[in-house]
Amino acid sequence: MRTILLNPGPVTLSARVRAALTGPDLCHREVEFLDLQDRLRRKLREVYARDDTTWGAVLLTGSGTAAVEAMVASCVPRDGRLLVVENGVYGERMRRIAAAHGIDCASVQAAWGEAIDLAGVRAALGTGGYSHVAVVHHETTTGRLNDLAPLADACREHGARLLLDTVSSFGAEAIDFDAWPIDACAATANKCLHGVPGTAFVIARRAALAALEQPRTVYLDLAEYLARQDGRGTPFTQSVQTFYALDAALDEFFEAGGWRARQALFRQRMAAIRAHLERLGVRPLLPAGESSCVLEAYELPAGRTYAELHAALKARGFVIYAGQGALSERVFRISAMGDIGADDLERLLAACGEILG
Ligand SMILES: Cc1ncc(COP(=O)(O)O)c(C=O)c1O
């Protein structure tokens, strides 16, 4: 029995992606690697149909946080000012990243589970002086898909540029690169794209990376990566095997119909799980329509602990995910990403029925 990962990344791999990991040994200075890197950068831009003139895809070796840190540290100019919009762990992390790099930064906070505080953002932007706004698209802490269209309007009105943490939404949720004033979005291979951990990336507006004469970081300097990768090079050793896996995962992604098809697939899975859990008396944390298609958080039923539910499901081949921080006693999370078949889903629903029925 294979174990199905229902945590929000890493995901259950397809046989094709797993097989790609055993590709040939390859030096990152060889032409074959540089061809692979070029191909990946092109495919990543194509996920949301971005042209190479305005946008650059930068490939990094690291987890999603590496991409987020690279974006924040590389995109806010020395005389810039950042407003971080928070309603969960990953918004808070961006504030910590900005502080670590000495970036002039303030935040507008909403409680975990609540929508972002748009009125607070408007008030802060109204005081002037913010060059950038950083926000998490899908706040994986609670499953909430933050409503970015009105935030984007507010940014445009005040001349602020958007930095998006799309780590758990890239490839499955709409990102309106044309309408929103996006300077960069950071993401990873091992969530909605179904690759393996180890490769992260940033899709950046080329003009946005010209701002820093003196970089804040050596390893995570996006302008340096962009220049070197455009010149068919790499500043550092890359995780070659995880690049192979992402290449295969992106082929599967496009063959299956791209981000809209992936969104439809995840929605279908999440709807089946939600309907079944609700029949079993398990309540979702957020009202219908406010969670992403990627993950949903559920209230632990009275008298059940996360540890007991996790263990019972793991014994049946399914790994769920705990709540974070203050939510750890209250919720569990289920994600729909990865190579999950209809038979796996049926087994999951049956297992939930056995344990919670
Ligand atoms: C929205 C979001 N941002 C950032 C991260 C951090 O990613 P990583 O754990 O790969 O560094 C995660 C991880 O789940 C996430 O969901």
Give me some keywords for this one.
357 residues; alpha/beta; Aspartate Aminotransferase, domain 1; 2 domains; seven-stranded mixed β-sheet; three-stranded antiparallel β-sheet; 11 helices; 14 strands; 39% helix; globular; binds pyridoxal-5'-phosphate
How would you portray this structure in words?
- There is one protein chain.
- The chain has about 350 residues and is an alpha/beta fold.
- The chain has two domains: about 100 residues, Aspartate Aminotransferase, domain 1, CATH 3.90.1150.10; about 240 residues, Type I PLP-dependent aspartate aminotransferase-like (Major domain) (Aspartate Aminotransferase, domain 2).
- About 40% of the residues lie in helices and about 15% in strands.
- The protein is built from eleven helices and 14 strands.
- The protein has a seven-stranded mixed beta sheet, with helices on both faces. Strands 11-14-13 form a three-stranded antiparallel beta sheet, with no helix packed on it. A two-stranded parallel ribbon has the order 1-12.
- Strand 3, helix 4 and strand 4 form a beta-alpha-beta unit.
- Helix 2 packs parallel to helix 8.
- The longest helix is centred in the C-terminal third of the chain and has 22 residues.
- It is globular and about 60 Å long.
- Pyridoxal-5'-phosphate binds next to helix 3.
